[in-house]
Specification:
Largest sheet: 8 strands, parallel, barrel
Low-confidence stretches: 294-317
Helix content: 25-40%
Structural class: alpha/beta
Number of strands: 8
Bound molecules: sulfopyruvate, magnesium ion
CATH class: Alpha Beta
CATH topology: TIM Barrel
Strand content: 5-15%
Shape: globular
Length: 317
């Protein structure tokens, strides 16, 4: 088991938890530094950023576990994994939850999409949900695997995405809660049905939402309805796409690289994010030589004139 101390995930009544969606370890670090108290390992984000693939169960359990491990090792806040549909049946789900536990996950979310899944954000995609009974078997298996790790189990209901209506969503949410889920994530294209569900008082476990498709809804309104948490699932990924596309185009048009500096983090900034000074002080990187130049880079980059060597050496002292 991973030796890092793990903070358990808790949803506290009356408190609205904001969960930041990450697509890789560095985006998880940036979310933690911004103050997010928990990280979501986005399946959409991992598929897109690490494989340039659609979110349709093409990423394997092992690849998802490794993505999770890298994030869990990079932050101290709880990491909640989007485990899609558990990669198969109840047996696959049980193994997946155990592997996520070993990788340092504090929470795991299992959805009731059939295998292979179709991302909820793909309009017009065929949508089939597994039966309530089959999903409950998965959750019971997941719960058993989760317990030794203290993993918080989230069950995800796709009824509203599949246009099955509020009664189906409520029935599934409560059946999943009885099967062992600690919270329910009801995904939706609109906020109105979630407001109705939250205000009905009929849910047996806390409600989590993903506001991607109803981004105009104020968080205050979500909190007032009693929603326990919102996942900002893909804003980091979309920022990366937006900024990198612009930069890719500009790099081919400028006359010199320093024309781009105002749009860039410095090399020194990146060094700090990946803890170059700490790695030095722990002896895992070569010490700079007496002339101040390390073996892995001596050209100063960045507007502040701090190349990798000088910046890191300063912080190591
Ligand atoms: C993800 O981030 O992978 C999610 C949320 O599951 S969504 O993409 O909206 O389905
Ligand atoms: Mg997903």
């Amino acid at each position: 088991m991973s030796s890092l101390p793990r903070i358990r995930l808790k949803l506290e009544p009356g408190k609205f938890l904001q969960i930041g969606g990450a697509h890789d370890a560095l985006s998880a670090v940036l979310l933690e530094q911004a103050g997010f108290p928990a990280i979501w390992v986005s399946g959409f984000g991992v598929s897109a950023s690490q494989f340039a693939m659609p979110d349709v169960n093409l990423v394997t359990m092992t690849e998802s576990v490794e993505a999770t491990r890298r994030m869990a090792e990079s932050v101290t806040v709880p990491v909640i994994v989007d485990a899609d549909n558990g990669f198969g049946d109840a047996t696959n789900t049980r193994r997946a939850v155990r592997e996520y536990g070993l990788a340092g996950a504090a929470g795991v979310c299992i959805e009731d999409n059939s295998f292979p899944k179709r991302c909820s954000l793909y309009p017009g995609a065929p949508r089939e949900l597994i039966s309530i009974e089959e999903m409950c078997q998965k959750l019971e298996a997941a719960k058993k695997a989760a317990e030794p790790f203290g993993i918080f189990l989230i069950s995800r209901v796709e009824s509203l995405i599949a246009d099955r209506g509020i009664p189906d969503a409520l029935e599934r949410a409560n059946a999943y809660s009885e099967a062992g889920a600690d919270a329910v994530l009801i995904h939706s294209k609109r906020f109105a049905p979630l407001r109705e569900i939250a205000k009905s008082g009929k849910l047996k476990k806390p409600l989590i939402v993903v506001p991607t498709l109803f981004g105009e809804t104020p968080f205050e309104e979500m909190a007032e309805c009693g929603i326990a948490a919102a996942i900002y699932a893909n804003q980091m990924l979309r920022t990366m796409v937006h900024a990198c596309r612009q930069m890719a185009g500009r790099m081919l048009t400028v006359g010199s690289l320093s024309e781009l500096d105002n749009s860039l983090s410095t090399v020194g900034d990146v060094n700090k994010l990946v803890k170059v000074p700490t790695h030095w002080s722990e002896g895992s990187l070569q010490q700079p030589s007496s002339n101040g130049q390390s073996s892995y880079g001596k050209a100063p980059h960045g507007k502040d004139g701090h190349g990798p060597t000088r910046e890191a050496a300063t912080h190591a002292s």
